[in-house]
Design brief:
By secondary structure, the protein is an alpha/beta fold. The chain contains 7 helices and 10 strands. α2 crosses α3 and α6 crosses α7.
Length: about 260
């Protein structure tokens, strides 16, 4: 399994303040595919991504990435992380931002022009980030994650707030990267983006409620669109948890008797 999986998460437990985010989460992410991590805001998508890239404190469990423990030095140039907020320097140009990251990663300077072209910012390469539109700024942030040709790219809602045309262009880029063997883990709360993924991890309230494919999701639920399919899975999850709680209450009552 390990030679086929880019990421293996086993019995992950994460506590943030008084809130238990995960209580024994198990996840496997295949290499060279686009895996969509979908669910409503606050369901745990970002916490899982932070755990995978090694910047989240975990209570227990293991997270193995490309055969190494998450966050280890050996993964520094092999894993890229694009946060939801644009992680860029506004007073620097597009090219200067990317050169800075290339220097940190010891990537060749030629990588900068390659990435600028990939994210479609050749005409804006000499502009400061502060002078760009919101969509262009998002592309700079994405470009910083692409420097160095990482094997795993983790992107937290990279298309949020973007117009439909730019969203479509970015998904074409994601598909091209996956076709070249890069593993893509992309989170979103926009369910129609599920259809662009190879595999789907659907989350709710810190739980994985489905590990499926776009076709299987629609077939299993009988829904015509991803939004309706997700709502059907949520309702099924709610009913299962109610049944579990009833069983536990009955067991406790029997023990007390």
């Amino acid at each position: 399994m390990m030679n086929k999986a880019a990421v293996e998460v086993s019995q992950l437990r994460v506590q943030r303040g008084h809130v238990r985010m995960f209580d024994g989460l198990d996840v496997s992410i295949a290499r060279g595919r686009i895996t969509g991590l979908l669910g409503p805001s606050g369901c745990g998508k970002t916490t899982l991504m932070r755990s995978i890239v090694g910047v989240q404190r975990v209570a227990s469990g293991t997270v193995t990435v490309l055969g190494e423990p998450a966050g280890t030095r050996a993964l520094r140039t092999r894993v890229a992380y694009g946060t939801q907020g644009a992680a860029v320097y506004g007073d620097l140009t597009v090219r200067q931002n990317l050169r800075y990251v290339a220097a940190l990663l010891k990537a060749p300077r030629s990588d900068v022009d390659r990435v600028i072209d990939l994210v479609g910012l050749s005409d804006q390469a000499g502009q400061t980030v502060d002078s760009l539109s919101g969509g262009q700024e998002s592309r700079v942030s994405l470009g910083m994650a692409l420097i160095g040709s990482p094997e795993l790219i983790v992107l937290d809602e990279p298309t949020v707030g973007l117009d439909p045309v730019l969203r479509a262009e970015l998904w074409e880029l994601f598909r091209s990267l996956a076709d070249d063997g890069v593993t893509m883990l992309i989170s979103s709360h926009v369910m129609d983006e599920a259809l662009r993924c190879d595999r789907l991890l659907l989350m709710r309230a810190g739980r994985l409620i489905a590990d499926t494919t776009p076709n299987e999701l629609l077939t299993e639920t009988g829904a015509d669109d991803p939004d309706a399919a997700f709502l059907a899975l949520v309702e099924r999850d709610v009913q299962q948890h109610r049944a579990t709680r009833r069983t536990r209450r009955a067991d406790r009552a029997e023990d007390e008797a």
